[in-house]
Structures are given as structure tokens and as C-alpha cells.
Amino acid sequence: MSLKKSISSLKLPHYKSTAGMAPVRIPIPKEVLLPVSPMNSHSATNAEPVVQVGDHVTVGQLIAREKDRGSAHIHASVSGTVKAIENYTAAGKKALAIRIESDGKMEKCPDLKIPQPTNLDEFLQCVRDSGAVGLGGAAYPVWAKLSAAQKSHIQTVLINGAECEPFITCDHRVMLEYGDLIQKGIELLKQFLGSEEFIIGIEKNKPDAIEQLTERFKDDPAVKVLPLSSVYPQGAKQVLLYNATGKVVEKGQRMASLGVIIINVYSLVKMAEYFVTGMPMVERIVTVEGSAVKEPKNLIVPIGVTVRDLVEACGGLKEEPAKIIFGGAMMGKTQDSLDNVLLKATNAVVLMNRKDTEKTAPSPCIHCGRCVAVCPLGLNPAAFSRAMELEDEDKKAAILQKEQVRVCMECGCCSYVCPAHRPLAETNNKAIGFIRNWEKAHKEGGK
Ligand code: SF4
Ligand code: SF4
Q1: Stretch 356-364: mean pLDDT, rounded?
Q2: pTM
Q3: Which fold has domain 120-277?
Q4: Dihedral through CA 177, CA 111, CA 33, CA 41, nearest 10?
Q5: From atom 6 of ligand 1, which residue's Cα is the shortest distance away?
Q6: Whose CA is nearest to atom 7 of ligand 1?
Q7: I need a surface site. Which of 123, 220, 261, 268 has the fewest CB within 10 A?
Q8: How far apart are CA 130 and CA 132, in angstroms?
Q9: Which atom in ligand 1 lies closest to the alpha carbon of residue 425?
């Protein structure tokens, strides 16, 4: 992979109108629906339900046990009664989900205890128990990422507070309001991972967060607050790694082998919160934004509430949304209903009106090269697009492999700059799916 020396070519409008809004807690919902899978494309293993219909549950009680690195423990986010364990489908993804009818009490699970680990293995087990997942989008269990420390010395921890996507201000608010938990998280990683350097990367469009955290860590030489230019995709792990350390992960290489891990700032906070309160991950801050919402806000919500609940807490809709996105406008996932539920990794819900979603029809490629020039990873999205038009699957696979389509992080920069309005990132997503299946089939077939 050849990372470009400069990624300053793509400056996006920020649309971060909620940056100055402290998060507010929504009223206790009538019910929640908790999928037992992270429901993203990379890790979709179902956790195993450990409750039955009719059971009374309390906040923080384990209701589904993780099975492997592709899943995480799920805990009740309200107290009440398990009404159903049912199939849930949202935006083309399926998972088993546990429906809990709230008793309106938010009664805390009496078995919760503040964890007291004494070594790395016990610490990782506690992080595992917390149910914390990567909140930068990938939803990969935090313990699994930190377990890299069992094999390699993690000298540097990069704390990702870039939040480069338009609309989202959740991590910005976290950095302003949970500095004590960021500090606690760093202390834990110092103690159990033995890391010596902590770099908190924050885009310069959050000067208050940069100032507060610089002040907080001014006497700790191990912690550096690094202001980053406000360019997209500054928060992508390959880009952040390069801009913060000058290092590049080559294809097939693990970042930990460079002595570095990247953790999202809110993931660090959620992990630390468990060691302070004993409460696993049952709620989160989410930014609710977009032209279809009356009063955009940052909200504190139990996991498993519906988009409809969030909209209600924001004064309702100005008009029916033409598009609902979980995440930002560039890398977020389009949702198909106001009844879809908030997942652990949903940092924003963007509801757009029809005018904002009008698209110009794509036209043939004019070979201008802008998509290649803008790609932070030096990929050739026009070549992926041409390959995907081929009928011969083996030829298609050969080109996609040669052009390293699987390296694509689906940041959307190429689509954004294409003068022919070609849906390049969408095609890349399909191409990655194709090559994954093709490689699996050829491995299984022994070819
Ligand atoms: S989405 Fe486009 S710009 Fe982004 S990494 Fe993939 S090919 Fe490059
Ligand atoms: S930016 Fe669009 S028009 Fe230009 S080379 Fe890429 S795909 Fe073709």
C-alpha cells in the first residue's frame, strides 16, 4: 500500500451545528430491541442469548454472551421484561434481537461490581465483560484489539478524536465532558499494556477539546495532544497512523507489529467507565442531525432505542426524511426505516430531506484521474469500476486482486470528486464483497 504524502485535497463542509450542544438524556423508552450481533459487514457473529421470554431483567444484566472476536456481550439497557427473542432485519442485515419492555424504573443489576484486575489477562477479561466495542464505526470488540498486547509490545497508543465526518459531534462532546475518563483509560493502558506514549489526535475544528485536553495532560510527558488539519478522512486509521507517526501498515501487516494500536476516544471512555462504575456498555451519546430534523441534538440514549424515539427527543420531523443514515454522510450506512434501532457503534443518525438527497445521474467515465489523485491510499477506483463491468469472473477477480481492492476503506473521497457522478465507493463495496466471496469459494474448492 502506498499512502499518499498529503491528504489535504479533500476539505468537506462540516455541518457540525450540534458541536456546542451538551448531550441530554432522553426519557426512558417504552421498550428497546437489542440485536445480538454488531450488524456490520466485518463482524457479524451472533452472541448467544442467555435470557428467555418472560424473564425480568435489570440494567447492565448480561442477556447475550459473546462467542468469539466477531461478537460482544450484550447487556440489558433498560429494566423490565423480555418480551421476545426475534429476527431483526435492518438495511439488508439480519440478526437475532432481544426485545425488552421497560418497567420505567431503570433498576440497576445488583450483581455489578467494580472490576479489580491485577494483570494483563485479567484486565482483558474485564474489558471483555464490559461489552465495549470500537465506536469509531468498526464495532470490533475492544478487548480483541487490546489483546494484541499479549503478542507484541504496544509502545504507542493513538487515541482517535479526529471525528472528520460531516455532521457528527459525539466524540467532540465526549472529549469536552469525559476528560477524567480519558485520563483513567490512559492510566489503565499504561498499567496493563505497558505503553509509553499516548497521542490524542484531534482535528483543529475542535479547538476547545484540544485546549482542555492539553491543559489536563500538561504535566504528563507520556501524553501528547496532536492537533490535526480538518481534512477528510483524517480519522481513517491508515491516515491517522501516517499523520501522527509517519508509519505505514503494509498489506498483510498488523498495526500492532509496528508497536502501535489505534483506539477511538469514545471506546477508551466506555472501557474506562466500566472500571469506574462496573456498568457495562448499555448507553451512548449519539448525534441526531440533518435537514429533516426539527431540533438537531446530542442525546444520551440506551442502546436499542428506535430512530423514532430519537426523532421525538429532537422535537419531531420537519418533513418525512428521504434518507436516514447511521454514521456520517461519507461512510455512514443508509437505513430503511424509522423503526431501525440504535446499535452500540451508531455515533450519529442523519435524517435528510428530499432536496438534500437529489443526485445527478452518473455518466460515462471521462478518464480525468481525479478519483486516483484523491484516494488517500493510492488506489485506482476507476479500475475497480471497469473490472466490475466484466462478465468473466476470473478476469474480474484477477484485476481486483492486482489493484488491491480489499485495501479500500470505503471513505467515499473518490465518489465525492468524480465529475461524472459515478458511484465509485458503492461499486468498491460491491467489489470487496465479490472478491471476498470469490476468494472463499476458490479456497474451499481447493483451486
Ligand atoms: S473509497 Fe475511493 S478514495 Fe476511499 S479508499 Fe476506497 S478507492 Fe480510495
Ligand atoms: S473521477 Fe470519475 S470520471 Fe474521473 S477517472 Fe475517476 S471515475 Fe472516471
Answers
A1: 91
A2: 0.93
A3: Rossmann fold (3.40.50)
A4: 70
A5: 408
A6: 381
A7: 220
A8: 5
A9: 1
